[in-house]
Structures are given as structure tokens and as C-alpha cells.
Amino acid sequence: DFGRSSELAFVVEPSDDIAVQEQPLILYCQVEGIQPITITWRKNGAMIVDSENAFMLANGSLYVSRFQRLRGDGSSDEGEYDCMAQNHYGLLVSRKAKIQAATMSDFHIHPQNAVVEEGGVARFQCQIHGLPEPVILWHKNSVPVNTDNERYTLLPKGVLQITGLRAEDSGIFHCVATNIANVKFSREARLTVSGSHSTVYKDPMILVGPENLTLTVHQTAVLECIATGNPRPIVSWSRLDGRPIGVEGIQVLGTGNLMISDLTVQHSGIYVCAANKPGTRVRRTAQGSLVVQAPAEFVQHPQSISRPVGTTAIFTCVAQGEPPPQITWLRNGQILETSDHIKLKNNNSTLSIYGINQADEAIYQCLAENSAGSTQASARLTVLWADGLPSPPQSVRAETVSATTIQVSWEKPLQNTKEIIGYVLHIRKAADPVEMEYQEAVSKSTFQQLVTDLEPSTSYSFYIKAYTSRGASKASEVTVVSTLGEVPAMPSLFIKVINSTTVQATWEPSIKLGQHEGFKLYYRKVHLSQYTGPVLLASNITAYNITHLDASVVYEVKLLAYNQHGDGNSTVRFVSLRETVERTVLNPPCDCMKDEQNNKTSTTGIIIGIHIGVTCIIFCILFLMFGYRGRLLMCKNVQEQLSTPQIPRSQRSATGLVLNGATRRDRDDRDLNGKQLDMNELERLFPASPSQEQQEKGMTSAHSLSAPHDETQISTLPLDELSIIEEQPDPLPKNPHASSPAAPAPNHGFANEG
Predict the structure, then answer these.
(1) Per-residue pLDDT tens over the stretch 131-141
(2) N or C: which end of the chain has fewer CB within 10 A?
(3) Which CATH number fits domain 387-482: 3.50.90.10, 2.40.10.10, 2.60.40.10, 1.10.287.3510?
(4) Closest Cα to residue 25, out of 69, 84, 58, 59?
(5) Domain 104-264+275-281 has CATH 2.80.10.50
(6) What is the pTM (predicted TM-score) of this model?
């Protein structure tokens, strides 16, 4: 295991460049690692042979003496260059450097003559293509424009803006384009400033809005926006997505141009320029998109590793950029081809090599590339191999035991068996990729293993390795065998009674059934031995109606799944249709007219009950009103009595119970204390004393009030027709509840005199 300094790696890689015609060009390449190291160069994938025009320097750099964009034989020095470094441990390829010739085209947009009124805005533009991007300067009357004048704004793309025009701004303008390839002059244009400043109102108008731009991070973007109007409109900027533009690196050029320095990916978006009339909501807008690209760069580099023979090696390479980079893997400078034991996952960011051997020892490179640039990272795989390891196990055999079990047997290796500490059996479905393989460890004294929990009718591959404390042997030969077929599992069966002669059998499809071709359905009367069926049903059928059944007997229904290996176990259900017939007899169809009539009757009864309740409450109140003047009210004239509804005991008011209880308690107190009613006091309260005959009638009425039914009658009469009698003691009632004392009578009237 070597240190980092021993790894073959690039210290300096060639970079993109723009070369000048007939001038020399140097592409740098510097490598470190264990010597000897050989460096070679390629252009567009082809090896470069040293020649008079291009050859390699002693430090590994490539020197081109006279760069030619196009030679006489049709060849060109333009293209993609990379350098390769190789030592004993592998080969390494640098990033690709794009070399282009410096050029400058003719102007394809020249400035145009303009006549603008005083106080207005003038705009000149010239445009030219070149590599590198030409620098454009403006001249007025053959003298460079004074950029210190705040009214003059020069934009990088060859635009000159003049605001608040004055008479002295008139003149002849042209632009000058310069780069390392050439210097060129545009045609001239005349600016004429006419008249005086106008005071006529003009709606805001955007003369030129922002263009769509695609730039790279760290560059500078200038979004142009020039507006006119009277009064002069206010120019503002915003993002269409509502996010803030920010302030860092943001600058306004002239009266409304937006400049963003040191671009990042977060600056990408659609920018909106708005020209607002001051103090109003009148506005005009224009928008342009800014796309910021970022060259590919690594978030996680692959790391060099050392692994024993037969194990798995994993390299991880994570890159980011805008647009997202594509990742390519190289093995010793050649594009890596995937196979059964070499797999790429997670969008090529993970390289897995299974069951490594000596041939897998190499330098593996991860290349990340997008439209903004490319980069590379490398790692070395060292395969550990110790002398004296066991040879592969011999005579590996696999025999099928059942649909889910296979027995694997082998013999010990022929060489170096003393240090063996165990064996590892590698198991995989033959149709699965290598990464789906799993292992089972076995002791060194065991030479057979029963592999269980397999899937029926499935092919499996097996191989064995012998392990020591210093490493594993090479893999044995691979043997492939299939498990036996299996009949399907029992289906779930449900029976639903449809009517007195039909039932429906339903079942659920399930992966637990395994591979099945269809279903078989049987049914019979339970007292018979012969089944009706089988009814053959396809594997996608999940319901079947059994008709023309006898409602007086019980049926047995049986369902099973079958396949090419035979019939599975059946599911049995019993069903009786007798209950359905009985429910039909016991529950005839409803008579809707009769039910409606019953509902009406019930409603009428509720209304009558409410009236009776209200009447009872009224009479209870009347009873209370007259109760405080005497213990019992009697009717003198029977013919004029108004009978009232009799109220059962259960519905009497609590107040009525108190009055009756008070009368009974007063009587009991009189018997115990020997007190007599003061008749003179009664005569003083009621001077019209009744006759003896009336008293007898009153007594008869009083006895009728205290009859065993314990019901109270109340009559409403004039006060002069009422008489008070002395109540005679009654025998104790038989009802124990009636003899219990009630609440005391109210504390007023004659009730307190006794």
C-alpha cells in the first residue's frame, strides 16, 4: 500500500486556449508518481508523433512552433488535446483541452444615423464576432468617447447610449473592435440633436429590452434596458419568479442597464425590466433570460483501494455542474466496458467490480464533462495476492432436493489445504446480475450445504471459495441447476348467496399462488358423494356464479388452482340457501301506504299527549292558588260543578302532593296533641256559616276526595259559596306510601291555627 505521492497523478493538465495564427503554442502537462513514467500526447484521440511543427519538451509539455488554423494539406492545429502518462501500475489520461484559433470577422451590425430631439435618448450599436471576444470602443469625431461623462454609457456588447441629449452631443460616431487576432473599424454614423426640449406628454416606452444570454460562472452579464417618455420613466428590475435580485455584485449602468458581476448558477432566471411613469401605475415591461453554466467539478473523488482476490471493489465518483455533467469511466486510458462482474450504477457515479482478480488491477478514471467544461479524477485498484493460498475447491455438484431446496457438495482443494479456515458458498439466481449474489459460510470440515428457501422452477448458479487468514482461493467452477416445479398454493374462497337458487363463488388472485394455469371449481349436495365439475376457469377469472340450486339442502363448494405440475390443495366452503327463502317469507315487501298511515296516527297521538300535559299543568297551578286558603275546597252546588280530568298518581305535580300531605299531617297532629279546631275563628273568616245539611254534603265530598283511588277534583266557585268543615279522622290507608309524611304546608292561612 503506497502513499499518495506514489500514485500516478497529474500536477498540471492542459487547459483550453486560443492560439494566434503563425505564433507558437505550448500545452502544459506535468505528472508525478513512481518512475519510470512515459508521457504521450493525443489530438482528437490520435497519437501525436514528434515533428518539426509539434514535439514534446523534456518536462512533458507539447510545443507547437507555428500554429496553423488551416494548412496546405487540409489539416489544422485546432482540436482537442490530451496527454497520457503511464508507469508500471497503469495509464492515466488528462482532461481534454480545446484549442481554437484567434479570429475576428467583419462587422455584421454597423451604427446608423440618428436624429433625436433635445433631452431625448440616442443609441448606437455595432456587432462583430471573434475569438477571443473583441473589445469594442467608441470614437466621436475620431476621438475616443469620454467615459467619464455620466450621460454616455458603453455596454460590453458594442452598445453606446446617450441620455439627456444636448446640442453639443451632435457628431460622427464609429466603433473600434480589437482582439489578439486583429483590429477593425466600423462605418461612421451621424447623430443630429434637433429642436428644444419638448414638454408634450409621452407614454413610457422601452426602446431596447434585455437579450437572452448564456454565460459561464464568474463572467459578467449586462442586461440592457433603455426607455423613453415624458416625463422620463423610472426603470426598475425584478425576477419573474419573484426571488430577490440581491445587491452583491449588482450595478446599474446609465439610466437602467443591469450589470451582474461574478455570475453564479443562482443568477440564472428570467429578468423583467419595467419602465414606470413617475407617480402612476402606467408601465411598460420587457424580459430576457439569463442562463449561467458551471463547468463540471467533483464533489467526491474516487479513492485508491487494495482488495484481496475474489472480493468486491467499489469506486465512487460524484460530480456537479450546470448542465449536469455526464460521467465516463476509463480503465488504463480506455473506455471501460461493463460485463457480468463490472457494473455501473447511480448514473455511472458508482463503479463496482465483483470477484476481482489479477487482471482487474489497473488505474480507473472518472471523467465528468458538460458544455461548460470537463474534469477528471483517478484511483488505482491493487489486487492482493498471497503465495501459498489454496487452489480452488474441486468437483462442485448441485442436486435438486425439492421445489425450494438444492444440495451443493464439493471436495477440498488439491493444494495448500492446511491453513483453510472455512468455505464460502456463492449463490445467485442465474437470471440475476452479479450484485444480487449472496453467500453462505461453511466450516472447514463440511463439504456439503443444503440451500433452502429457494423459488420453485428457478435456475441457480453456485461456486465455492476456500478461505485462509491471508486471503481466499480462486473461485471454483460454476455449476447451474434448477429447483423442482411446485403445485400452486390454496386460493382464498368466499361464497355469497345471490338468491334462493344461485350463489357466487369469489376468490382473490395472489402471488402466493405461484405459477398457475387456472382454477378448478367443484360443488355438490352434502349428502351426495358425486361432485359436479370440474368447472375449468382461466387464471385471470376471480368469480363464478353457480345456478339452479335446490334451496332445501346444503351445498359444498370446492376450489383449487392447478399448473403443469398438478393440482394444488383445495379450499372448501359450505352454503345453505334455506335461510334466504325463510327471510323472504318472514320479511314480505313493505306496505308503504299502511306505513304512512301509521306514521300519521303516531303524529296525532303526540299532539294529543302534548295538549293533555299542558292541561294538567294549568290545573295544578289553580290547585296551588286555592290551597293556601284552606286544606280542602268543596263544591256547594253539585249541578254547577265543572269536572276536570283525573290525574293519575304518577303524573301529579309535586305541589299537589305537598298539600295532600299537609292535610294528613295536620290531622295526625290533632289526634296526638288533643287540640280542637277553633270554630269561632273560622266563622270570623267565613261569616256565612253553612247548614248542617251542607256540612254533611261537604263531608261526603271530602270522603270522596280521599277515596282509595287517591284522585283530586277541583271546582271553581264564587267565594261566598265555599264552606269549611271540620275533617273527621280517617282510618289508616293500606298503601304504605300514602301514610308517609309529606312536606309541610305553606306558612299562611288557617292551616297554622290547628
Answers:
(1) 999 999 999 99
(2) N
(3) 2.60.40.10
(4) 69
(5) no
(6) 0.57
